Amino acid sequence: MKTRYFLFLLLFLVSFGACSDPNHITEPLHRAESLMNESPDSAWTLLNTISPDEMGQNRTRALYALLYTQAQDKTYRDETNDSLISIAVDYYRDTDDVRHKFLSYYYKGRVMMNAGESIKAMLSFLEAESLCEEVNDGYLLGLLYTQMGDIYKNCYDYPRSLEMFQKATVCYEQDGKDLHRLYSLVDQSNVYKNMGQNEESYQLLCVVLNDGKQYGFHRLVELCLGDLVMLCVKLKKYVEADKLLQELQLHYDSSSMSSSFWADIAEIHAMKQEWNLSQDKMDLAWKRARTENDTIVLYFAEARIHGIRYPQTESYRFMMQAVKKQNGLVRRSMEQPLLSVQNNLLATELEFQQYKLRIERIQRWTIVLFVVVVSAGIIYVGQKWMRKRYQKWVLERLRKQEVCYQLDLQCLQKELAKKDENIRTLIEEFNQKADAKDMNYRRVLANLESELASKEKLYGKYVQWVEIMQNDKEDCMSKLSQLFNERIKLADEILRVQITDFATDKLKQDALTAFIDSFIKKVIKSKNSYEILEEWVNMSNQNVMKHLRTEVKLPDEDSYRQVCYHIAGYSVYAISSLMRETKNKIYKRRERIRKKIEDLKPKSMDLFVKCLSK
Fold first, then answer.
1. Which of 15, 287, 294, 328 has the greatest number of beta carbons closer than 10 A?
2. Number of domains composing the chain
3. Which long-range contacts (C-beta less than 8 Å, at least 24 apart) are formed by 389-394?
4. Is 178 helix (H, G, I), strand (E, B) or coil?
5. What is the pLDDT of residues 78-119, one digit of tens each?
6. Is there a domain that residue 242 lies in?
7. What is the CATH number of the domain that holds 231?
């Protein structure tokens, strides 16, 4: 059983080590993902520090492939090989991570566009578009629709291209991306211009120009000025085109403009009959021509300038009408093949993906089954081999232990015989000593019994004397208490008489109080009359003053003193004289003390109430 557990643990650790990724890989990936939108150059640099060979999980490999392709696209490094991004697509296709699935399809479409594979790019974009409702990110959706609009525009499917750019504009506006929104309006303007709807294109460019100036997007304003100049030329708004040209040349560098731009400038000069300037601008346009499209545009510009200079030429007018008809026919004819090829390729791609999923599912189950069978075989063979080895080892160990146990048993038997002999010797010695001690114990016991009898007699006499002394003490205490109470009553009566006769004489009251205090001191033979008075009150009233000082916190010492006088039996008149305070103050203080005791409800409350009620 231990062998089986060991093998399972070993397989688990091997599989765990193969599937885990170290933190030094996952942390830079997440850091690069957070930097991607704001600082793609930093993300690109960080991703280049990671070695793809160190990654263990497919999830980490897929994330690295997606982020690396995204960083390439955002740093304008056009990748044309889809082998890396396909790793991300294959992984995220079967997961619930919608955002990464969307991005993997989107950037595969970008790679296909860089490779010139428009149809494959559109297929990837359509897969990403199916996730739009779950992604709910205006910026990402705007980027997707912009790319789809570019593909449709390059394939001359202008209505679908316009629809995609309009969707991109709405998405950018919802996400607050003003610059992207304005560029999508420029894309719409170009589509309108290609469709021959120059007025709609003009209106959109005017909106972009005004908003671009408001937000301070100078590069966009420069682009709009150039496009508006060329569009005004097509609309034959030469005055406005001239104003826009002057604004462009005043605030921006127009030397980098395209050949078609300079051709339109030449047409503006031709309308102003500035033939030399018109010819100079056309020469500059021909120098900047790079492609066949540039050449075609310049030939058309030469034809228009020729028509302006020689308006009587009827052939020019018929030629331009024929060219317009031909452009429309070519555009419509080129739209249909793209749509049919796209639909057929979509169906083929769907069948291929389904077939690929079935093959992958079969491969996964085959691998799982193979791993299970191989693991079971390894476990079975290993368990059988380990069982034989374990049984052999156990038998050898048991044989050695048996030999050791026999030797130990012989030694123990010898030691046991020796100990038995020692025990017998000790028992004999103990019996001899026990007999001698027994005689001593008997003599000691007899002595103890005689001493105990004498001590019981002494204890009886002691108890008799204690009882006599206790009775004498109680009689003495009773007589002393009676005498003390009589003295207090006598002093109280003297104070009453003295207060009645001399209530208005402060000096006589003080003299009388001193006399009474000296009288009390003389009676109880103490230097501190109040302390002895309080001690006597405690002795005769269950330590009432000790409990009061412990359980009730009174405002001052005079309050405790007044309570002691009350319990001792002094009248209010006598207390007033002893404390040199008015009777009214004595009454009020007594009421406050009683109320405080009733509010606090101390343990000895019944004792306090009983003593204060005397």
1. 294
2. 4
3. 390/3
4. helix
5. 888 988 999 999 999 888 899 999 999 999 999 999 998 888
6. yes
7. 1.25.40.10
